[in-house]
UniProtKB/TrEMBL annotation:
The keyword Signal applies. Residues 1-24 form the signal peptide. It comes from the Bacteria. This is GLUG domain-containing protein. Keywords: Signal.
């Protein structure tokens, strides 16, 4: 996959000797001949001249074209119609940068002596969100938010900026430490697709927002993948959690919330405070202290309707009522497959208050749904407990079909992608 910015470069020059292979979108990928490589780059619309096909493209940092170019590529381009060229360029993902692009046309051999080599230079500055937002707003420098070209998140401001782009695709390129951020306002978002690529958000503090506190607030119709919140304090709201305050029609895949504290009034859990219509695969929450004052504290969620497959919770839960190893409150419209929770941490069952139908009179207390398994600490620290979990070798390549690893120095399953995060170079 290539990531790119669009560069508005209007060129009406030359011709082509070498037609480079184009990708499915009709883009011509230029390969630098000066050894330069990058996992992303820029696009240049370019119209070859009818008089020649041979071009050299050079990219210089700043305005000084007397220095050696950062990138140099040659191309043979014919057709006389505007084409989109792709040049690898590892520009800064946090701050806009200025470049100069120089295009040199070499004369066609048949016109030697008639035409001479000619160059044109163009200033080029990378832009936040295609010019729509600023650095101060947390704008993105790479990507357009589409599935094939997601916005790339490189820092805390850009993480917070997710809320400005509903319906977009994102990938997180590095771990993000929020320890100097202050009080985090949960991200409300609809229709997003977020791939953490095996990166964490560290040291989240979200406190005192009355509706609730978490990394995400109201998250609807969205997917989170390969994403973890590690070390968090989310307290002082009606609904507090590590990852999502209120999830509706959300899919989690290979996500975690670990080493945290919640302290809510009504609903609290490691992954969710409340979750409706969610699908969760290969995810966990561990080493958290989950508290909901009046009701609904659970290892994974305070309130839960949805499906869980290959998940576990090793969390302490507390509060006046409805404490669950998995969820404090849950409903019949749920399905569980190989879901484990550790006993002896405040809960007496997977779900304390279970509605077996929509009627409040259908409550089953202290319920253990099929597919859930209560295990003491002595068993939660043994790999063979986790039936159905697909384990890979931690030193091997990441394979999404085997998302788990078992490290001898750890005492519960971990997610392989966090040992093999995917970063743009
Ligand atoms: Zn933006």
């Amino acid at each position: 996959m290539k990531y790119h910015l669009r560069c508005a470069l209007a060129l009406g020059v030359l011709l082509a000797a070498l037609i480079l292979p184009a990708d499915a979108a009709g883009r011509v990928n230029l390969t630098p001949d000066n050894g330069y490589t990058a996992d992303y780059g820029i696009e240049l619309p370019f119209t070859p001249s009818p008089r020649t096909a041979d071009y050299t493209f050079e990219v210089f940092r700043g305005e000084n074209t007397s220095q050696p170019p950062l990138v140099r590529a040659q191309a043979s381009l014919s057709g006389g119609v505007t084409q989109t060229l792709y040049l690898p360029l590892a520009f800064d993902l946090e701050h806009a940068e200025r470049y100069t692009i120089r295009v040199t046309a070499q004369p066609d051999a048949r016109r030697a002596g008639l035409d001479t080599e000619d160059s044109r230079t163009f200033p080029y500055t990378t832009q936040y969100c295609g010019g729509r937002h600023t650095e101060a707003q947390g704008g993105y420098l790479l990507g357009d938010g589409s599935a094939g070209n997601p916005y790339v998140i490189q820092n805390a401001k850009q993480l917070s900026h997710v809320r400005e782009h509903p319906g977009s695709y994102f990938r997180q390129n590095v771990d993000i430490d929020l320890s100097s951020w202050g009080n985090w306002t949960p991200i409300d978002a609809d229709g997003i697709n977020y791939d953490g690529c095996g990166h964490y958000v560290w040291n989240l503090t979200s406190t005192g927002h009355s509706s609730g506190n978490a990394l995400f607030g109201n998250l609807t119709n969205s997917t989170l993948r390969r994403f973890g919140v590690n070390t968090f304090t989310c307290t002082g709201g009606e609904y507090d959690a590590g990852l999502i305050r209120a999830a509706s029609n959300v899919t989690l895949d290979q996500c975690l919330a670990a080493n945290g504290t919640t302290r809510a009034n009504v609903c609290s859990g490691g992954l969710f405070a409340t979750a409706v219509g969610v699908t969760v695969r290969d995810s966990f929450s561990s080493s958290c202290s989950i508290y909901a004052k009046t009701a609904n504290a659970g290892g994974l969620s305070g309130n839960f309707t949805g499906s869980l497959a290959r998940c576990y919770a090793i969390n302490t839960v507390a509060g006046e009522d409805s404490l669950g190893g998995i969820s404090g409150h849950g409903t019949y419209a749920s399905a569980f497959q190989n879901v484990y929770w550790e006993t002896g941490r405040g809960a007496g069952s997977a779900v304390q208050e279970w509605w077996s139908s929509d009627s409040p009179s259908s409550v089953i207390w202290n319920y253990n749904p099929p597919g859930t398994f209560a295990k003491p600490a002595a068993e939660m620290t043994v790999q063979s407990t986790y039936q159905g979990f697909a384990f890979a070798n931690v030193t091997g390549p990441y394979n999404p079909a085997k998302p788990w690893v078992w490290e001898p120095n750890q005492n519960h399953p971990l997610l392989h992608i966090f040992y093999r995060p995917e970063e743009l170079g």
